[in-house]
């Protein structure tokens, strides 16, 4: 009997074939059922006190996006270490630099505007799987660093205005935004910004008011408050999906080793000889649709 040893594939499919249009697994609910998010059409805001588990949730999204074909990452992390493991496969990785943050947001808005022109020309309202256009996922860890700490007041305001623009435009044109903050207060998350996020995850908060700032006014009074999450129950949160009722979840947790392993594998699948070809030089990345 003759056996044929397959030759090494010239290109390994990403994922394989994983897409941002696929539901993203992020953990389980209180009945042990898996919880999935459709981040492609809904931005995600995650907030809660330090150590509550926000980064865990964000890393689940990053891991999924990193493994997806035709998906690009734009990462903002003033602390560098939270999203740092994914930096090699990101189109842009912005550290504690408000000028760069503003510049990149401006470019993203240009891309979003171009995509709307494309949608209009094609008699469409939103991007769909199969359009062939890349999904650009923007992830911001510690929103407050860019909107209240780094730079001048004018720069912080410009950052916040541009971000508001991207969050409102991005969802229909394949450019979702995921943002996290440790400071659930009105100056960081005004209702006008919060309400643009179709998903909101409230990790442990110190007060009913903080929980309401994330989920929306009135939920704490109805019994849905992240202040009832035990400090030792990291990764537990209330997740609200637009139009629904907050749901208690426990985010899946990736250790640092898991994260680096996924990031390394994803970077390998995205190598120029693979099926997905990122910009050769991140400074020359071409985000236009
Ligand atoms: N889903 C989870 N399951 C079990 N443990 C978790 C989970 N999420 C987080 N933890 C534990 O809690 C610690 C803090 O989590 P994480 O860094 O995600 O919190 P955070 O809210 O992002 O904090 P910070 O705001 O300081 O960045 C982790 O190092 C881990 O030990």
UniProtKB/TrEMBL annotation:
Stretches assigned to coiled coil: none
UniProt entry tagged with the keyword ATP-binding: yes
Superkingdom of the source species: Bacteria
Keywords for this protein: ATP-binding, Nucleotide-binding
InterPro entries recorded: FtsK/SpoIIIE/SftA, FtsK_dom, P-loop_NTPase
Residues reported in the UniProt entry to bind ATP: 48-55
Classification via Pfam families: FtsK_SpoIIIE
Name of the protein in its database record: S-DNA-T family DNA segregation ATPase FtsK/SpoIIIE
Organism of provenance: Micromonospora ureilytica
């Amino acid at each position: 009997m003759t056996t044929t040893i397959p030759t090494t594939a010239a290109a390994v499919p990403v994922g394989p074939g994983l897409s941002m249009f696929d539901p993203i697994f992020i953990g389980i609910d209180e009945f042990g059922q898996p919880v999935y998010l459709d981040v492609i059409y809904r931005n995600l805001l995650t907030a809660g006190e330090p150590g509550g588990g926000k980064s865990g949730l964000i890393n689940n999204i990053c891991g999924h996006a990193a493994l997806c074909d035709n998906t690009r990452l734009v990462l903002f992390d003033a602390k560098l270490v939270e999203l740092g493991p994914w930096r090699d496969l990101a189109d842009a990785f912005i550290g504690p630099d408000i000028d760069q943050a503003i510049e990149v947001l401006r470019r993203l808005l240009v891309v979003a505007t171009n995509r709307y022109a494309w949608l209009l020309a094609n008699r469409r309202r939103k991007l769909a799987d199969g359009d062939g256009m890349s999904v650009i996922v923007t992830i911001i860890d510690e929103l407050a660093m860019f909107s209240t700490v780094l730079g001048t007041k004018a720069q912080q305001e410009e950052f916040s205005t541009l971000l508001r623009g991207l969050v409102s435009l991005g969802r229909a044109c394949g450019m979702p935004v995921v943002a996290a903050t440790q400071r659930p207060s009105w100056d960081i998350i005004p209702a006008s910004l919060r309400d643009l996020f179709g998903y909101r995850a409230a990790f442990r908060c110190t007060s009913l008011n903080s929980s309401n700032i994330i989920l929306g006014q009135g939920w704490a009074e109805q019994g849905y408050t992240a202040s009832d999450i035990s400090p030792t129950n990291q990764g537990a949160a209330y997740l609200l999906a637009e139009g629904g009722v907050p749901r208690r979840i426990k985010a899946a947790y990736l250790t640092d080793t898991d994260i680096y392993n996924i990031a390394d594998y994803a970077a390998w699948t995205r190598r120029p000889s693979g099926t997905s070809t990122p910009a050769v030089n991140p400074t020359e990345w071409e985000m236009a649709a």
